[in-house]
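So, read this over?
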Amino acid sequence: MERWIDGDENANQMLARVFMARPFLLPPPLHGVPLRVGNVVELIGPSPSAKTHILSQTAISCILPERWNDVEYGGLDRLVVFIDLDCRFDIMRLSEMLNYRIMEVEGVVDGDHRKTLYNLCMSRFLYIHCYNSFEFLQTLKTLHYRLQKEEEAHGISSLVLMIDSIGAFHWVDRATAFLPPRDSSRKNLFSQTVSEAVVQEIKKVTQMHPMLVIATKSTIFMDRYSAASNVAKWNFIKDNQQAERVSRNVTRNDQAIQYREYMPSVWQAFVTHRILVRASEDYRVMSNHENCSFYTLEWLVPRLNSSERLVVKDAGIFVD
């Protein structure tokens, strides 16, 4: 009580504490559940299923200002960290979607004005790519210092840490775990050890820079008739019995689709929310739109009783 009366925290500490306590809503399509900094959202689905598109649209909503030059943009006015483990991120697509978003709000305005806002937003998008688990862990270990510099330079804090394809190196690490290392000074990595280190480093970063974590993960789907025959194929995997067995997670569509979980249990225990995204083939046949793709988004954790149809257009993702 005395510490509270004395007021022993500055404004940044107060805001960090408030955001930790109060949930906030991200814009569509991640608006179904109130989220707060410290949550870890896993966005799963086959490739392609618009997972990176969803990250890009969420990032744009974060880096846009709430109000700029007396114009309302409705952004969150924060920094975003994007760690690309697939090394396939299309920065031009992000640029195109950002320009569409600016033009949607402003209409036809002075080109210099629009370019200044565009440059401001892009400077708030911190892009990092990694080619293996060593680089990924090195990035996480040094992320605190980079964020310190970026936050001081921009005068705003970070809001979201995005990891595109958290399982990108899982199978490579598994395959090379028992092979002689190419470099005698460096040991091979085990997937369980890597996941433990990744979780610990993310926890350290988010303690010093309170952020929401969103990670995409490609997954393998099996229908219910072939799932039983495929169980034997996965029995040789011994990373962790709980994490490596065939997942019982199913969709609500008469349990016709199952996906197999492959990430170690330490990562699965770290995840607080899970979203399933997959192509909506039936809906694509029903539509006559051109240059559009259609997907279904479903919250698995927490379980919601409804799903949403997403339309991916040149301007971004829209909830149908």
